[in-house]
Specification:
The chain is α/β, with parallel strands linked by helices. It has helices spanning 11-16, 25-34, 48-59, 93-96, 98-112, 122-134, 148-151, 159-173, 223-229, 231-241, 245-256, 270-279, 285-288, 293-302, 329-335, 358-372, 377-393, 396-408, 412-416, 421-435, 471-480, 516-519; strands spanning 37-41, 83-87, 139-144, 183-190, 207-208, 312-315, 322-323, 326-327, 340-345, 350-354, 439-446, 449-456, 460-467, 493-502, 507-515.
Length: 521
């Protein structure tokens, strides 16, 4: 039985080690045939590096690696091209500095092709290498994880380095457009689309296929591919977990499926799926390979609400609002894989974003709680249990006691960076209740206005309003603006709760609650 290729990024290893290769060569062939300059954004651990390596092997004419692939009898194996392959995950920019690391790597590539370079700077060397190598046979340029030198320094303390690396990359790419006659094919991948890096300004003929319908499945696994290539591993996991295969497939879908870039095709994360086949246990594999610390910090510093981008229709322009100077939370959560497209409104050109699956949702919220509030796992377990019990029993005294304990764990240092307290507290309540599976929605828009939060349990619908001031003012706002009105047809009891936040104490100060029946509304 063939083995799984967990973490393998070189196509040659699939051949030599007898690994399962999910054949993507038909869609790759279509991509090459249709154009010349491409950019693709996908989250980490999603198969970008293997895709780039597959392109390299195709253009270098390594036919034996494709014996079992769709492309075997479609490709002209004699029409080879020299390949310049850059992976910024492997270039030693942290140790050497980005400029020197690029310079040394280009020198190595030139030596490999027996080319002597005259230019003295890294950007000039790159253009000279393209020209000299492509004089007789146009070159293929493959650049993997182009944005890693920027993303690695997005912590507040390292922003100066992020700016510096961005400018170095801009200079590096700036002259490529003028080398068109020496280039056969250019393919660039990354997690993010930084608007001020010149590949998106100077290279204005670069086609961004991130959300292109024809290439939405170029990386990632579909359900059809899982059943085709991994039937033996599905059987082994089903046997280990003592689950019938239909139940296993449903559970795998809940945990690892759900990524989409067109709202039509939904894909599994390859790394998570192969990790499941290897460990034969369900857990948060993908999230454990790296945590978005800078994202959480950006959320806290901006006082942003985590829910502002989730389960809401947004315009396409939101995906492109991404730069160091003004990091858009919606764009970064989408590009890094924490949000994905669940539905597309083609008439309005709008997109519904949501967490792709259980793995990402649970991991993100647990991580966010840890960084929003410095609570231990034992403390969080007690708080969560108390919140569930309070909502089930309509015990707001217990509810506010549990939340106050959570807020007390937030240090003054953390709150000093918060610009808007109400949004900060909304976020904490939202993520905590999401963790425990409570159905909560925030900033619910209706003809009656926008209420802070609506929580639904089996027996009740809670309408929450938070105020920097009195609880009475918060409760009165619910009544005056009739936030309860959309839920009146529901048979569940409607409970209105107004919370007051004490800015000086930095905690909840009190609450007032009424049911619709008690308020005679």
């Amino acid at each position: 039985m063939k083995k799984i290729g967990l973490g393998i990024q070189a196509l040659s290893e699939f051949k030599t080690k007898n690994l399962i290769y999910v054949d993507k060569t038909e869609i790759i062939y279509k991509l090459i045939d249709a154009g010349k300059y491409y950019f693709l954004s996908r989250p980490r651990r999603f198969g970008k590096s293997l895709l780039v390596n597959t392109l390299k092997e195709l253009f270098e004419g390594n036919k034996p690696l494709f014996e079992e692939c769709w492309v075997r009898d479609k490709w002209n194996w004699h029409a080879t091209s020299p390949v310049l392959h850059f992976s910024f995950a492997k270039i030693q920019y942290r140790e050497l500095g980005l400029k020197r690391a690029i310079d040394e790597y280009i020198t190595q590539l030139a030596s490999k092709h027996n080319i002597e370079l005259q230019s003295s700077i890294y950007s000039g060397k790159f253009l000279e290498l393209i020209e000299k190598l492509g004089e007789k046979n146009p070159v293929v340029i493959l650049i993997d994880e182009y944005d890693k030198p920027i993303i690695d320094h997005l912590e507040s303390s390292e922003m100066k380095q992020a700016y510096e690396n961005r400018d170095i990359l801009k200079t590096f790419y700036s002259g490529v457009k003028d080398q068109d006659r020496y280039i056969r094919f250019l393919f660039i991948t990354g997690v993010s689309k930084f608007s001020r890096v010149s590949i998106f300004s100077d290279l204005n003929h670069l086609s961004d296929i991130t959300m292109h319908n024809d290439y939405s499945t170029i990386v990632g696994y579909s359900e059809i591919e899982i059943k085709k290539y991994y039937p033996a591993y599905l059987e082994k996991v089903a046997e280990k977990l003592q689950l019938p295969q239909p139940s296993l497939l449903n559970k795998i879908m809940e945990w690892y499926n759900g990524y989409s870039w067109d709202g039509i095709n939904f894909l599994y994360n390859p790394y998570s799926l192969l990790s499941l086949f290897d460990a034969k246990v369900f857990k948060n594999f993908w999230f454990e390979t790296g945590t978005p610390t800078f994202l959480i910090k950006k959320l806290k510093e901006a006082g942003s609400e985590i829910n502002q981008s989730i389960n809401k229709l947004i315009n396409e322009s939101a995906f492109n609002k991404y730069d160091i100077d003004n990091i858009n939370i919606t764009a970064i959560m989408f590009q890094t894989g924490y949000l994905t497209i669940k539905k597309v409104d083609n008439d309005e050109n709008r997109y519904l974003l949501e967490f792709p699956n259980k793995e990402v949702r649970d991991s993100f919220f647990n991580f966010a709680v840890e960084h929003y509030a410095n609570s231990t796992s034992d403390e969080m377990e007690y708080i969560v249990d108390s919140l569930i019990e309070a909502l089930n029993n309509n015990d707001m005294n217990c509810f506010i006691t549990a939340l106050s304990a959570l807020f007390s764990s937030i240090t003054a240092k953390q709150l000093d960076k918060v610009k808007e307290y109400e949004g900060f507290y909304h976020s904490i309540i939202y993520i905590v209740l999401k963790i425990v599976g409570i159905q909560i929605q925030c900033e619910i828009q209706s003809n009656f206005g926008s209420t802070d939060a609506v929580i639904k349990t089996d027996k009740r619908i809670y309408i929450f309003e938070f105020k920097m001031g009195s609880a009475q003012a918060a409760l009165d706002q619910i009544k005056k603006k009739k936030y309860y009105a959309p839920y009146l047809p529901d048979k569940r009891e409607i409970v209105m709760v107004g919370f007051s936040i004490d800015k000086r104490e930095r905690n909840l100060a009190g609450f007032l609650s009424e049911t619709i029946k008690e308020a005679n509304l």
